[in-house]
Amino acid sequence: MSHLIIRHLTLMQENLYFYFPDSENDQLTFNMWMLNPSTDEGSDHCDALLELRVDYSQKAIFKTFSHPMDFWVTLLDIPEYKDLAEQAIAIFVQMPTSYLCEQGSSSLVLIKTKKRNAILNLDPVMRVALENRLYLDSP
Length: 139
Known about the structure:
It comes from Petrolisthes cinctipes (Flat porcelain crab). The protein is mainly alpha-helical.
């Protein structure tokens, strides 16, 4: 019995490494500077990030925001941090983009039921469904 359990756990561990490779973990660690720019975790230690880490006024401003994305948006107006802010925003924006794709798939499943299978032009119906979802999901 113990042999079967060990084999099962070994297969589970191999599957975990397949679905969650170490390279993705390294990428997450590398990008931790976006969540808290004052930490030394990850990043390539570019000059702008090093300057930001010692800028006490920006550290105080960072603490006032509930989400790091809001902080990076404010840095777009500061020329010395603009490139760094654009990098952070580009990575933050990836998640909502995939979220909207999932919302579109869910809307399509709800629209194309057996009773509505005769609908040929889905563009206007999908547009209304997605705009409605965006309106309902926004704060």
